[in-house]
Amino acid sequence: MGAAAFVWPLVSQMNPDASTIAAGAPIEVDLTPIATGQDIKVFWRGKPIYIMNRTKKQIEEARSVPLASLPDPQSDQARVKEGHDNWLVVIGICTHLGCVPLAHEGDYDGFFCPCHGSQYDSSGRIRRGPAPLNLPVPPYSFVSNTKIQIG
Predict the structure, then answer these.
(1) Catalytic: which of 84, 96, 104, 116?
(2) Which CATH number covers residue 145?
(3) Which one of 3, 31, 51, 94 is least enclosed by Cβ atoms within 10 Å?
(4) Distances, alpha carbon 86 to alpha carbons 28, 53, 94, in Å
């Protein structure tokens, strides 16, 4: 008992402090509470991250868009993890001037930036407006079928 009381503070002090975690330590997100067609917003490195559980319709619409018609051509498959096509994970910062777009808004059932009118589709790709690039995809991986690690 005495040894455990002595060792605990030594082990505990090796964990990263809150400022280190805020500076970019990886975070894990449980996907179970996100129903099909819904999204959540979490924060990693001080940036909003949208995690969207896309419907089959949203996936089909995103994949039917000719790449040549996109200002920043990128296939939907390149923006999601293989075998997890329904999960879209993007940094929620407009690539025009850094505003935070709204999810499930606009003409493409994706994201809409109300500040200057940029519209992104359900794959986070720019479709209309002044934004020059797609919403970035952060580094992430699936820890299990119901949990991802961002960072």
Answers:
(1) 116
(2) 2.102.10.10
(3) 3
(4) 18, 5, 22
